[in-house]
Amino acid sequence: MTDGVLILVVEDEALIKELVVCGLEDAGYVVAIASDGEDAIAMLEADGAEFRAVVTDINLAPQNLTGWDVAKRARELTPDIPIIYMSAASSHEWTSSGVPNSLLIAKPFAMGQIVTAVSQLLNAGGSGSVE
Questions:
Q1: Which residue from 32, 55, 87, 120 lies 20 to 30 Å from 26 (Cα-Cα)?
Q2: In the predicted model, is pLDDT for residue 126 greater than 50?
Q3: What are the DSSP calls for 96-115, one per residue?
Q4: pLDDT (tens digit, 9 = 90+) per residue, 46-96?
Q5: What CATH homologous superfamily does 1-65 map to?
Q6: Is 64 helix (H, G, I), strand (E, B) or coil?
Q7: What is the C-alpha to C-alpha distance for residues 114 and 103, in angstroms, rounded to an integer?
Q8: Domain boundaries, the chain
Q9: What mean pLDDT comes out for the span 5-27?
Q10: Predicted local distance difference test score (pLDDT) of residue 57
Q11: pLDDT of residue 125 exceeding 60
Q12: 49 vs 56, 61, 113, CA distance in Å?
């Protein structure tokens, strides 16, 4: 059922990136990876980009662009694209900086929380915090 659903994962920490990518692939999603905001936005803007959701860390190195920036650009390009934020330190900014109809998952998290959040937003377009 999730075959062919392309998810963009934006994470600069290798271990977390590997965890999220493996979890989403195990759930049947196809995953593209960006290590910073600049790469993520370039991937979103590429001709033929067909991302169905974005899972992004908020604080990305080298911090020229944040996960907030990635999500805002993704929504400019595709207004209803689901956004899942991951953060250990910036969750308090979600209500003021996050895009509508997004989810925030606080680090540390269980991989099932990411898969559930992606599925929830793809299927229902819901909004809320999963902690």
A1: 87
A2: no
A3: HHSPSSEEEEESS--HHHHH
A4: 998 899 999 999 999 877 899 999 999 999 999 999 999 998 887 678 777
A5: Response regulator (3.40.50.2300)
A6: coil
A7: 10
A8: 1-65
A9: 96
A10: 95
A11: no
A12: 17, 24, 26
Give the Cα separation of 23 and 96 in Å (integer): 29
Confirm if 83 and 67 have CB atoms less than 8 A apart. Answer: no
How far apart are alpha carbons 123 and 99 in whole angstroms?
18
Structure confidence by residue, pLDDT tens digits, 97-112: 889 889 999 988 999 9
User: Does residue 46 contact residue 69 with C-beta atoms inside 8 Å?
Assistant: no
Assess contact for 8 and 34: CB atoms under 8 A.
yes
Q: Tokens for 89, please give them.
A: 């330190």
- Calculate Rg over the CA atoms of the chain: 13
Q: What is the pLDDT of residue 130?
A: 41
**Which SS3 state, helix, strand or coil, does residue 31 take?**
strand
Query: Token pair of 41, please?
Result: 């936005």
Angle in degrees, 0-180, between the axes of helices 111-124 and 14-26, rounded to the nearest 10 = 60
In this predicted structure, the answer to whether residue 40 has a pLDDT above a threshold of 50 is yes
User: Helix (H, G, I), strand (E, B), or coil: what is residue 83?
Assistant: strand
What residues have CB less than 8 Å from 32, skipping those under 6 apart?
Answer: 6, 7, 8, 9, 43, 51
